[in-house]
């Protein structure tokens, strides 16, 4: 069982977690750039401030952390035992916001890729290859990284 961390220490740790330029995001950016795909970062003019905007390809990339975005069934997501109701509301709110964002960007004509942290951690090369293929395709949506580690492309 994990050692209990003091409340002040936990608060400081949680406050230090970044929302931009995370390790999974940097890995995705590096691969896309290496494949010749150019992008803008965190465009505040678009709903949800996407992590990557590939205007030439009319594509947006959101890199989701499995914990913060409540990736159900994922081995990297576990609701904390401390203040579980607070965390449940926080994560459910994040998930609701994600759905509103996806709806908003789809309505204005953007194609969307969601890359889950677990996909980068578990099968980085296959996941990034799938992302590059999506960007160069005409598919409207791809979600890379299911709880089983599979890569799904929903039909739309």
TrEMBL record:
GO terms of molecular function: endonuclease activity; hydrolase activity
InterPro entries (alphabetical): DNA_mismatch_endonuc_vsr, Restrct_endonuc-II-like
Keywords from the named record: DNA damage, DNA repair, Endonuclease, Hydrolase, Nuclease
Signal peptide residue numbers: none
Enzyme type, top EC level: hydrolase
EC annotation from Swiss-Prot or TrEMBL: 3.1.-.-
CDD domains associated with the record: Vsr
Keyword check for DNA damage: yes
Pfam families noted in UniProt: Vsr
Function of the molecule: May nick specific sequences that contain T:G mispairs resulting from m5C-deamination.
Protein family membership: Belongs to the vsr family.
Protein name: Very short patch repair endonuclease
Source lineage: Bacteria, Pseudomonadati, Pseudomonadota, Gammaproteobacteria, Lysobacterales
């Amino acid at each position: 069982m994990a050692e209990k961390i003091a409340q002040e220490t936990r608060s400081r740790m949680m406050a230090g977690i970044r929302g931009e330029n995370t390790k999974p995001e940097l890995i995705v950016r590096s691969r896309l750039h290496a494949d010749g795909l150019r992008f803008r970062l965190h465009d505040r003019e678009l709903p949800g401030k996407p992590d990557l905007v590939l205007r030439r390809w009319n594509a947006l990339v959101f890199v989701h952390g499995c914990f913060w975005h409540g990736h159900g069934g994922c081995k990297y997501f576990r609701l904390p035992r401390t203040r579980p109701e607070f965390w449940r509301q926080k994560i459910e709110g994040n998930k609701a916001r994600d759905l509103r964002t996806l709806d908003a960007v789809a309505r204005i004509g953007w194609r969307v890729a969601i890359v889950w942290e677990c996909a980068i951690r578990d099968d980085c090369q296959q996941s990034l290859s799938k992302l590059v293929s999506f960007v160069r395709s005409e598919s409207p949506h791809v979600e890379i990284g299911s709880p089983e580690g599979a890569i799904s492309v929903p039909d739309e």
